Amino acid sequence: MLRLVLNSGDRIPSPLVTDVAATSTGIAATVIEGPLADRHRSLGAKLAEFGGWSMPLSYSGVVEEHLATRTAVGIFDVSHLGKAVVRGDRAIDLVNAAFTNDLDRIGPGQAQYSLCCDEETGGVVDDVIVYRGTSDVFVVPNAANAATVIAMLQDAAPPGVDISDRHRDIATLAVQGPKSQAVLEALGLPAAMDYMAYQRLDWRGLPVAVCRTGYTGEHGYELMPPAAEAGVLWDALLEVATPLGGLPCGLGARDTLRTEMGYPLHGQDLSIAVTPVQARLGWAVGWDKPAFWGRDVLIREREVGAPRLLWGLRSEDRGIPRPHMAVRGGNDGDLGEITSGTFSPSLKVGIGLALLARSVGDGDEVRVDVRGKPSAMRVVKPPFVEPHVR
To answer: Cα separation of 278 and 383, whole Å?
Structure first.
């Protein structure tokens, strides 16, 4: 995910909206084209729908883009991610009483991973990144859940607190990989900042937020310029990154990169049916806070123990786990199911995440039903490869 606070004005127009053919239900759908759509087409990108937006899936290929990010630098357009600004004297108090993590743990100019949970069940409505300002908070939810999260905040907002949807106004470009710092320095952008920090500045007359965040496990940044002028920054990033071995990268590589890190994806590893306790995200919960959505039910689950937990699985043979595949024990008893799965370009084996019964432990061998055939996999604690985010 990517996120941050920007004060770009309302002069920025929305991206194009394109009507596409019927969905599987036979009802016409509207897919939003991001601000860089023409550039993606000129680079030969394969486009796909993500959260209602037409976004690049890949350019030269998922494996090549994945490895370029691990060894050099990848440039990603993730402008489909939601963006909302919460302003007012009680803006910070509102966000802190809504989301799980404790905003008092950070100060202005810092970011924090947090969760928006259902009050009744404790299930994860969405996972978000929040960027704290002096009296405002910038919230970045996932694209498909942005409207829901914003509506929940608006319903809970006291008088004097304003929540504005900036989803289409601000683009987000991720620069990820061991050479990402060199790319930013070559463009005169601030790069020597702490992990989960951000700065706002003018770059060549363009207001840009530079964030030390990312979703790949590599040292990296997320840049937020006005959507209408994002192409200038995209072009400059690629011009510098290409001689360094960098590539434009799509959301396919972003998914394999985050899976190698064990980072959960909402809609697969996280959902309204999965709580932070089950997903092993208790570190993103301010348990001592007096209030956050879902607090009471989550404290109870923490005390008694979750019925299932999120684990990593690494293939012991040639099997590649995929979402919804059944996971079984040695006696063929049902232990759970795969939530995310892929072929790891770094390790050259199948890896995945799975919600498994409490009886499962680290190092256990399980069987995954891969297209009707049992595949041996080892239960492990992610990440699968060494992270370099800091």
So the answer is: 17
Whole-number Å distance between alpha carbons of 36 and 55: 9
If you count DSSP H runs as helices and E runs as strands, how many of each does the chain have, helices first?
Answer: 8, 21
The rounded distance, in Å, linking the Cα atoms of 268 and 278 is: 13
DSSP 231-245: HHHHHHHHHHHGGGT
Would you state the pLDDT for residue 264? 98
Write down all domains in the chain, each with its CATH number in brackets. Answer: 17-82+169-260 (3.30.1360.120), 84-165 (3.30.70.1400), 307-382 (2.40.30.110)
29 pLDDT band, cuts 50/70/90, is low
Confidence check: pLDDT of 351 > 50: yes
Q: Tokens 């434009």 appear where?
A: 248
pLDDT tens profile 53-82 = 999 999 999 999 999 999 999 999 999 999
The answer to whether the CB of 128 falls within 8 A of the CB of 302 is: no
CA-CA-CA-CA dihedral for 376, 377, 378, 380, to nearest 10: -170
Q: Which residue, 115, 135, 139, 110, is CA-closest to 127?
A: 115
Separation between Cα atoms, residue 227 and residue 78, nearest integer Å: 11
What is the distance between the terminal CA atoms of the chain, rounded to a whole angstrom?
16
- pLDDT at position 166: 97
* pLDDT score, position 289: 97
Give residue 390's pLDDT band: very low, low, confident or very high (50, 70, 90).
confident
CA 137 to the chain's CA centroid: 18
Residue with tokens 């007012």: 88
198 φ, ψ (degrees, to nearest 5): -150, 160
Span 1-25, average pLDDT? 30
* pLDDT tens per residue across span 308-319: 999 999 999 999
Reference 80, options 37, 28, 137; nearest CA is 37
Helix extents (H) in 135-229: 146-156, 180-186
Distance between CA atoms of 369 and 265, rounded to whole angstroms? 22
Q: CA-CA distance, 174 to 77, in Å (whole number)?
A: 6
Q: What percent of the chain has pLDDT over 90?
A: 90
Distances (CA, A) of 310 to 20, 167, 325, 347: 37, 31, 15, 21
Please choose, from the candidates 85, 90, 93, the residue with its C-alpha nearest in 3D space to the C-alpha of residue 292: 93
